[in-house]
Amino acid sequence: MSEEIVNKVAQSQLVTLDLESYYPAEEIAVFDLKPHLFMELILKEKEFRVALQNNDWSVYQNKVVAVTCTADAIIPMWAYMLVGSYLQPVAKDVIFGDEQAARQKLFVQNIEAIDTEPFADKKIVVKGCGDIPIGEFAYLAVTKKLMPVAKSLMYGEPCSTVPIYKKK
């Protein structure tokens, strides 16, 4: 007589949250101030303004734009504001930093937008492995988001979890 195999993981009522599903899908373009600087080092206001006026801003249409300066130059704050004034009408979003910083900001925004109602008083496992490398910042953000509503919070896979938080 054989015993029935019981899937205890399926019966555990654990809710798995896969952070990959919140990874930003938007295309990110980078606007680097460096090519618009005199000798790629010095910002001369008149030339900088002309360079921006002559720039083809349509390439940033409906994209998230990361604004950065890869030159080791002193850039006045107004220069970023001026670039932003050109990008605002065409870009989906404008973020200061390189592509990685922009992707991180979008990722955190996606996590902060999670509807916590389906997770209320649930045992949640935040998936630990996947195809996309997920940074530490995302795990901190999801902990901050879900801890106030979760019954318990764990890291890993349903069959092997690391306890993080349990409501008292």
From TrEMBL:
One Pfam assignment: DUF2480
Domain of life of the native organism: Bacteria
Protein name, as recorded: DUF2480 domain-containing protein
